[in-house]
Write a structure and sequence with these properties.
- The complex is a heterodimer of chains A (493) and B (499).
- Chain A has 493 residues and is α/β, with parallel strands linked by helices.
- Chain A is 38% helix and 13% strand.
- An eight-stranded mixed beta sheet of chain A has the order 4-6-5-10-11-9-7-8, with helices on both faces. Chain A has a three-stranded mixed beta sheet with strand order 1-3-2, with helices on both faces.
- In chain A, helix 2 runs antiparallel to helix 3 and helix 9 crosses helix 11.
- The radius of gyration of chain A is 21 Å and the shape is globular.
- The two termini of chain A are 16 Å apart.
- With 499 residues, chain B is of the alpha+beta class.
- Chain B has three domains: 296 residues, no CATH class; 123 residues, no CATH class; 59 residues, Arc Repressor Mutant, subunit A (Orthogonal Bundle), CATH 1.10.10.
- In chain B, 40% of the residues lie in helices and 17% in strands.
- Chain B is built from 15 helices and 16 strands.
- In chain B, the strands form four sheets. In chain B, strands 1, 2, 6, 7, 10, 11, 12, 13 and 14 form a nine-stranded mixed beta sheet that branches.
- In chain B, a hairpin with a 2-residue loop joins strand 1 and strand 2.
- The longest helix of chain B has 22 residues.
- The chains are: A alpha/beta (493), B alpha+beta (499).
- Chains A and B meet through helix 9 and helix 10 of A and loops of B.
Chain lengths: 493, 499
C-alpha cells in the first residue's frame, strides 16, 4: 500500500501545494504512524501530534488564502531531541535534563517552522549525542525497523541520531533533523537505508542545540533521498549572528542546482580507508560506488590521506575535552535535575546531581576530557591532538588538489545488534570513516548503496571541499540514480 | 629606589609587590551577551539566557568591550595584539553558571606596557618611577552568592555574571605600600580618563589582587602570596604592609611562606588564608571552541587610537608649559578627569567671555576654581558633579572681575549669592548694586578727605615708611564700601601721596 507516509518531503510539499491532499491529512497520517510504532521502535522521546496538526492547519489556511507557501510547507518532521524547542521538553536523552522545557527555540528548528514544517515529536538519540548505537539514551535505545534476514534480534538504528534514522526509515516521518559530531548523521543514515548530510562546519547555526563538542557539532537533514536532503538543508542553513562560528555566506539553491552529470569531475579514493579485514559487503558496495561514479562521467583517482589512522585517537581527545567543559553547566543549580541530599553542601549537590543525571558513557567522556585537559597532560594529549587535527585538514587540502569529491564507506560494517558491542572501544572504532571529515569541518553525506548479504542497508560516504555541499549532493545523486535503492524494512511493529 | 624596609629581628627586609587589577569595562552590555550591566539592579534582573548558561546558548563577543580594552592598552603604551584568543578556565562554583570563565590565558589582547608613578617625597617616592605592565586581557565576571537571605541556603544573583572585566597585570616592580597605592591610583586615573572603567572601587568596578613577597634587599624573589579582591587604595597599602610583616615574622620564626590565596579583613587589618575553590588548582584552560580567534584590523585600531583623549601626564605638562599654571595646580586639576573637564570648560568659557587667549585667563580660572569654588562647594556638601553653577555661569563671574566691574572680594559675595539663589552673576551684581566704582573724581574726593584726616601718616609715608600704603588703600576701600576699583585706588593714591 502506498499511503501518504510513504511519500518523501518534496512529494508531500508538492502534493499539498497542488491540493492533492491537505497538510492536516498528512500530519494525521504521520501522527498515527508515530503512535503505532512508538512502543516497538522507541524512536521518539516526546511526541507532539498537536504541534504537527496546528502547523499543518496553518499551511492549509495559508494555501486557501492564496498566500505564498514556505519551502517545506505541509511537511511534518521529527526533531532530534538535542534542539531546544520552546515549550517542549528538550532532554538530550539525559536524566539531568529530563523535564527541562526551554523558553527559547533553536535557530535551526525555528527556520524549519518558518519554512512551513511541523513537528511530530522529539527524537531519541544517544545521551548528549555521545554514542554510535543509541544505547546511551536514558530512555532506552531507538530500535531499527530493519532486521537481519531470518532473525528477529533488535538492531541498532545507529547513533547518535538513531531516533531520526529509525523514524525516517520506518516512515514515521518523511525527514528529520540530525546532528553530526563524528558521524552521528551519516552512520545512522547508512545503517537504515536513508540519506543524510552534514554540511560544512558553520553552515547551520549551533544556537539552541545542546552542545556536545562545539568545534565539531553540526546540524543537518536526514531524509529518503538526496533531493529531499538538499531542500531541507536550504531551510536549515544560514548565517546566525548569535553563533560566533556561523558562516557568513549566502545559502545556495542546492536543490535547484542538483546535477548528477559528473563529467570533468574527479573522485578520489583514499587508499588508507582500505583497512585490513574490511567487511566484504562494505568493500563491494564501495567498488559498486566507484563504478557508478565512473558511469556518471567522473574520473576516479587514487588519493592518500596519510594521517587518517590518527583520526580516531584525535577525535576521542578533542570531543571529550570540549564535552567535559560544555557539560559543566549541568550542575543542579539553575535548571534540570537537582539531587540535594540531607545536609548536603554545594560540592555534595554537584556530585549527587551529576552522578544521578549522567549516564555511563557521558561520565566516561567527561572523565576522559577532564584528564586530557589536566595540568601535566594537556600538551601530551590536547595540544598534540590539535596538531594532528591540523595535519588531517592538510591531508584533505592536498587531496582536493587532485579530486573534487572523495568516496568512501560511511561505516565499516552494517548495523549491529543492540548489546552486541559491550566494549566502548569497539563502538568508537565504528567511527573510523566518518570522523576525519568532522575533524576537518568538511561537508559529507551518506547515501544508500545496497544491502548486505544478510539484508541490511549499506551506505556510501561522499566528502567534499569546504562549502561545496553542491558537489557532495551531486555525487550523492549520481550514486542514488544508479544504486536504485528501493528496499524498505518489512513492517513487524 | 624606594628605601622602604621592614625591620625584622634579624635585619632589614625588602617587600616586592605586583598587582592584578580587575577593572569592569564601561559598556551597556556584557562581554558575550546583550544583557545590561547597571550597578544595583534587582537580583537576577540583568540576566540573559547566555548569562544563565542555558543549554545550547553561545557567546558572541561584544566589540565595544574589546574596543575599551584596546584603548586602555594604548593609554599605557602597550603592544596591542591583533590576534588574540579566548580560553576557558574551568572550575565549579555556584556563581559560575557555565562551569567555566571565558578569559584569555595564552594569547591576551594587550601585551607589554607601563605607567609612571609620580615622585612623592613625603611618601618615600623620591623620583618618578616606571612600573611595568605585563598584559591586559578581557574576561567574564562571575555572579554573586548571597548567604544572608535564608538560614540554610545560599542564593545566587547572576547580574554580574558575564560582565566584561579587564585584568591588568603589573610586573613585580613595586617596593613599598606607597608605590602600590600610587600605581593603583594612577591606573584608576588613566582608565577614568580613557572612559574604559568608571573606577568606582566601592561598587566593585575596580579591585586588586595583591601579590606580596619579601626578601633581603638585593636577593632573589621570595615566595609570594596573593590577597584577593582588595577594593580600595588604602586597603591595598594596608595589605602590603600587614602581609609583608606577617611574612617577615613567619620567616624569622623559622617558617616558610606558602604560595596561597589570602583574604584581607579590614576590621582586624590582617590577611588570612582562603579556602580554595577546588581542592586542586587545575583550571584545565583550553581555547574556547565556541569563539573564533579575535582578529583586529588596522582601521579598528586606528579608530581606537583616534578616540583616545589627552592623557593625564600630557595634560599636566600642557597646563604647566602651555597655560603657565604651577606644578601644584596642574597636578590637582588633572588628578581626576572630571575636574580637568570642568576646568577646561571653565577656561574656554572664560577666554571667550573676556575675549582673551586661554593662556591669559588660565591662572585666574585655576586659582578661582581651586581656592574659591572648591571651598564654597565643599561647604554645601557638593562637588563639581553636583555643582549648581555651570562652567559658563562661573565664567561670567570671572569676566566681571576681569573687566573691573567687581572686585575680587565682591566676587566672593556674588559667588555665595549664586550658590544660594541660582541666579546669574550679572543679575546679582546689578540687583545688589555691587558694581565697582571706577569714577576717578569720586575716588579722588574720598582720597583727599582721608589724606587730610591722616596728615601725620602722610608725613610718615613721605618720610619713607612705604608700608603705610596698604593702610591708605584699606581706608579708601572702606570708605567706598568695598566697591571701588582697587587698581584705580592704587594709581590715584600713589599720585596723591607723591604730592
Amino acid at each position: 500500500m502506498t499511503g501518504l507516509t510513504d511519500l518523501g518531503l518534496i512529494a508531500i510539499r508538492d502534493g499539498v501545494a497542488k491540493g492533492e491532499f491537505t497538510a492536516v491529512e498528512v500530519a494525521q497520517a504521520f501522527n498515527a504512524a508515530v503512535a503505532d510504532a512508538q512502543e516497538a521502535l522507541n524512536a521518539f522521546i516526546v511526541t507532539t501530534p498537536e504541534a504537527a496538526l496546528s502547523a499543518a492547519a496553518k499551511v492549509d489556511a495559508d494555501r486557501s488564502a492564496g498566500k505564498e507557501l514556505g519551502k517545506l510547507a505541509g511537511v511534518p518532521i521529527g526533531m532530534k531531541d538535542l534542539f531546544a524547542t520552546k515549550g517542549v521538553q528538550t532532554s538530550a536523552a539525559s536524566k539531568i535534563l529530563e523535564g527541562f522545557t526551554p523558553q527559547y527555540e533553536s535557530t535551526v528548528s525555528q527556520k524549519l517552522w518558518d519554512a512551513g514544517a511541523g513537528m511530530l515529536g522529539k527524537l531519541n538519540l544517544d545521551q548528549f549525542a555521545m554514542g554510535s548505537s543509541n544505547e546511551s539514551s536514558a530512555f532506552g535505545p531507538a530500535i531499527s525497523p530493519w532486521r537481519r534476514k531470518g532473525d528477529t534480534a533488535a538492531l541498532t538504528a545507529g547513533g547518535s541520531s538513531g531516533g531520526s534514522s529509525a523514524a525516517v526509515a520506518a516512515r514515521l516521518c518523511p525527514a528529520a533533523t540530525g546532528t553530526d559530531t563524528g558521524g552521528s548523521i551519516r552512520q545512522p543514515a547508512a545503517f537504515t537505508g536513508i540519506s543524510g548530510i552534514k554540511p560544512t562546519y558553520g553552515r547551520c547555526s549551533r544556537w539552541g542545540i545542546v552542545a556536545f563538542a562545539s568545534s565539531l557539532d553540526q546540524a543537518g537533514p536526514m531524509a529518503h533521498d538526496v533531493a529531499d536532503c538538499a531542500l531541507m538543508l536550504e531551510a536549515m542553513a544560514g548565517f546566525d549572528p548569535k553563533d560566533a562560528t556561523s558562516l557568513d555566506m549566502p545559502v545556495p539553491d542546492w536543490s535547484a542546482l542538483l546535477n548528477a552529470d559528473l563529467k570533468v569531475k574527479k573522485v578520489g579514493i583514499p587508499r588508507e580507508y582500505r583497512i585490513e579485514g574490511l567487511n566484504a559487503d562494505v568493500a563491494k558496495a564501495w567498488d559498486d560506488g566507484i563504478a557508478w561514479l565512473k558511469d556518471a562521467g567522473a574520473e576516479v583517482v587514487d588519493i592518500s590521506l596519510p594521517h587518517s589512522k590518527y583520526a580516531l585517537a584525535t577525535y576521542y581527545i578533542i570531543a571529550p575535552a570540549e564535552a567535559s567543559s560544555n557539560l559543566a553547566r549541568y550542575d543542579g543549580v539553575r535548571y534540570g535535575l537537582r539531587d540535594l541530599p540531607d545536609g548536603a553542601n554545594l560540592q555534595d549537590m554537584y556530585a549527587a546531581t551529576r552522578a544521578a543525571g549522567f549516564g555511563a558513557e557521558v561520565k566516561r567522556r567527561i572523565l576522559i576530557g577532564t584528564y586530557v585537559l589536566s595540568a601535566g597532560f594537556y600538551d601530551a594529549y590536547y595540544t598534540q591532538a590539535q596538531k594532528v587535527r591540523t595535519l588531517i585538514s592538510r591531508d584533505f587540502e592536498e587531496a582536493f588538489k587532485q579530486c573534487d569529491v572523495i568516496l568512501a564507506p560511511t561505516a565499516p560494517t552494517p548495523a549491529f545488534a543492540l548489546g552486541e558491542k559491550s566494549n566502548p572501544l569497539d563502538l568508537y572504532l565504528g567511527d573510523v570513516f566518518s570522523v576525519p571529515a568532522s575533524l576537518a569541518g568538511l561537508p559529507a553525506m551518506s547515501v544508500p548503496a545496497g544491502l548486505s548479504s544478510d539484508g541490511l542497508p549499506l551506505g556510501l560516504q561522499i566528502i567534499g571541499r569546504p562549502f561545496d555541499e553542491q558537489g557532495v549532493l551531486n555525487a550523492g545523486l549520481a550514486i542514488e540514480q544508479r544504486a536504485q535503492f528501493s528496499a524498505k524494512p518489512e513492517k513487524w511493529w | 629606589m624606594s628605601s622602604y624596609r621592614i625591620q625584622g629581628a634579624t635585619g632589614e627586609w625588602e617587600v616586592v609587590i605586583g598587582l592584578e587589577v580587575h577593572a569592569q569595562v564601561t559598556s551597556n552590555a556584557k562581554l558575550f551577551s546583550g544583557s545590561a550591566t547597571a550597578f544595583g539592579a534587582e537580583p537576577n534582573s540583568q540576566v540573559s539566557l547566555v548569562d544563565a548558561a542555558m543549554p545550547g546558548m553561545l557567546p558572541v563577543p561584544n566589540m565595544e568591550c574589546i574596543r575599551q580594552a584596546v584603548r586602555t592598552g594604548m593609554a599605557i603604551e602597550a603592544a596591542i595584539n591583533k590576534w588574540s584568543r579566548f580560553d576557558r578556565k574551568n572550575y565549579f562554583y555556584a556563581d559560575l553558571p557555565q562551569g567555566y570563565q571565558i578569559s584569555q590565558l595564552y594569547h591576551p589582547l594587550v601585551g607589554e606596557g607601563s605607567l609612571t608613578i609620580e615622585a612623592d617625597e613625603k611618601a618615600g617616592i623620591p623620583e618618578p618611577k616606571v612600573i611595568g605592565i605585563e598584559r591586559i586581557h578581557v574576561e567574564q565576571d562571575a555572579g554573586k552568592l548571597m548567604h544572608d537571605q535564608h538560614p540554610t541556603m545560599s542564593y545566587v544573583d547572576l547580574n554580574r555574571s558575564g560582565v566584561a572585566l579587564m585584568e591588568i597585570v603589573s610586573r613585580p616592580d613595586m617596593r613599598s605600600p606607597a608605590e602600590a597605592g600610587a600605581y593603583l591610583s594612577k591606573l584608576r586615573q588613566i582608565v577614568r580618563y580613557v572612559g574604559s572603567c568608571d573606577g568606582n572601587m566601592d561598587q566593585g568596578s575596580m579591585r586588586a589582587d595583591v601579590n606580596v613577597s619579601v626578601r633581603r634587599p638585593g636577593d632573589e624573589f621570595g615566595t609570594r602570596t596573593e590577597t584577593k579582591n582588595v577594593n580600595s587604595v588604602r586597603f591595598v597599602m594596608a595589605v602590603v604592609e600587614s602581609e609583608a610583616k606577617r611574612q617577615v615574622a613567619l620567616i624569622e620564626d623559622g617558617g616558610k611562606v606558602v604560595q596561597e590565596t589570602r583574604l584581607y579583613d579590614p576590621d582586624k587589618n590582617e590577611t588570612r588564608s582562603m579556602r580554595s575553590k577546588e581542592d586542586a588548582h587545575d583550571y584545565r584552560y583550553f581555547p574556547d571552541p565556541d569563539l573564533l580567534p579575535l582578529v583586529l584590523d588596522d582601521a579598528f585600531l586606528e579608530e581606537c587610537r583616534a578616540s583616545l583623549p589627552e592623557l593625564p601626564d600630557a595634560k599636566r605638562a600642557r597646563y604647566v608649559d602651555g597655560l603657565g599654571l604651577s606644578d601644584y595646580n596642574a597636578t590637582v586639576l588633572t588628578t581626576d578627569v572630571d575636574t580637568a573637564r570642568w576646568f577646561e570648560a571653565l577656561l574656554a568659557a572664560t577666554a571667550s567671555a573676556q575675549n582673551k587667549p586661554e593662556a591669559d585667563v588660565a591662572k585666574q580660572a585655576a586659582n578661582w576654581l581651586l581656592s574659591e569654588f572648591f571651598g564654597a562647594l565643599n561647604k554645601l556638601g557638593k562637588d563639581l558633579s553636583t555643582s549648581p553653577i555651570s562652567p559658563e555661569g562661573a565664567a561670567e563671574l570671572l569676566a566681571l572681575v576681569g573687566n573691573g566691574t567687581i572686585s575680587g572680594s565682591i566676587a566672593k559675595q556674588v559667588l555665595e549669592k549664586m550658590l544660594e539663589t541660582g541666579d546669574a552673576a550679572g543679575v546679582i551684581v546689578e540687583r545688589e548694586g555691587l558694581k565697582q566704582n571706577s569714577d576717578t573724581g569720586a575716588i579722588e574726593a574720598v582720597i583727599a578727605e582721608i589724606l587730610t584726616k591722616n596728615a601725620d601718616k602722610v608725613e610718615q609715608y613721605r618720610g619713607g615708611k612705604e608700608a603705610l600704603f596698604g593702610f591708605f588703600v584699606g581706608q579708601t576701600m572702606k570708605a567706598m564700601q568695598g566697591k571701588a576699583n582697587p587698581q584705580i585706588i592704587n594709581e590715584l593714591l600713589k599720585k596723591a601721596l607723591a604730592g
